[in-house]
Predict the structure.
Amino acid sequence: MSGIEGSLRASGIQRIAGVDEAGRGPCAGPLVVAAVILRNPDAPSLLRVQDSKALSEKIREELFDVIKEESLAYSIIEISPEEIDRIGLHKSNLAGMRRAINALTIQPEYVLTDGYAIEGLAIPNLAVWKGDQVALSISAASILAKVYRDRIMIAADSQYPGYGFAQHKGYITAAHTKALGELGVTAIHRKSFANVAAISINK
């Protein structure tokens, strides 16, 4: 447990929600935000929990169900490419964080977020720099968001063959850029992103 979470619990605050997102960088697919309140951060089953980016896909998949089982409450929210195009990525991220917290079936006493403060939230909250690396509840949320989003993009690979979504998950790679040029822009691409807009204009 991080110093932040340990200090909060030592002061009597027990219901701490960690919030994190997956999918800010890709030019295709949704932004996914997860929030989780862990029942017991010291549970042995959570020992492997850390920043989702530091874990293999296999371990993330295993921990996805473990985290859900060890949570008092959790929520996972999708922000569509259309909403990202309409209001912008940063506003979408903040809106997703608010929705994820409000969707929890148990109200947290305190909220920890990865890097971005949530304006207008009535619950006390703190933005933690590199939070997914230093706060267990944020790390747990990062795994929920990452696994959920990866599953969406793997399913999209069947719906939109030829783009390689199962491999790159919507991120900009040479193969993805080549597919965009040859096959065009799909319904799940973020048309406000410069590389996608360039294809749309040139087609």
Summary: Residues 3-153 form a domain with the Nucleotidyltransferase; domain 5 fold (CATH 3.30.420.10). DSSP finds nine helices and five strands in the chain. Residues 136-159 form the longest helix (24 residues).
